[in-house]
Amino acid sequence: MPIYEYKCKDCGSKFEVLVYSNSEKVICEKCGSDDPERLMSGFAASGFTSSSGSSCGGSGGFT
Ligand SMILES: [Zn+2]
Predict the structure, then answer these.
(1) 54: alpha, beta or left, given left = phi > 0 and alpha = psi -120 to 50?
(2) What's the pTM value of the predicted model, to 2 decimals?
(3) Cα 9 to middle of ligand 1, angstroms
(4) What's phi and psi for 13, nearest 5 deg?
(5) What are residue 39's DSSP bridge partners?
(6) What distance in angstroms lies between residue 32's CA and the mean position of ligand 1's atoms?
(7) Residues 39, 37: Cα–Cα separation, whole Å
(8) Cβ contacts of residue 34 below 8 Å, gap of 6+?
(9) pLDDT at position 42, please?
């Protein structure tokens, strides 16, 4: 399961969330803001698209 790191724009706190689906709503656990910013933390940083990518891989070379 993908874990994403978020930073709240309102209170500035960072937290990690297990995201089960792309449309999952993430809420800041500190202040309750429903629009935290997703950080690209290390992995899956390249070629990231917001659309649900059913075709994985591309230029990976991972079998
Ligand atoms: Zn917050």
Answers:
(1) alpha
(2) 0.57
(3) 7
(4) -80, 150
(5) 5
(6) 6
(7) 6
(8) 25, 26, 27, 28
(9) 54
Distance 7 CA to ligand 1 centre (A): 8
Question: What would you report as the CA-atom Rg of the chain, rounded to the nearest whole angstrom?
Answer: 13
Return per-residue pLDDT of the chain as tens, 63 residues: 788 899 999 999 999 988 888 777 899 989 999 999 998 755 554 555 555 555 565 666 666
In whole angstroms, what is the distance from residue 11 CA to residue 44 CA?
A: 26
In contact, 7 and 39? CB cutoff 8 Å: yes
Q: Which residues lie near ion ligand 1 (Cβ < 5 Å)? A: 8, 10-11, 28, 30-31, 33
Residue 6: partners with Cβ closer than 8 Å, 6 or more residues away: 14, 15, 16, 17, 26, 28, 36, 37, 38, 39
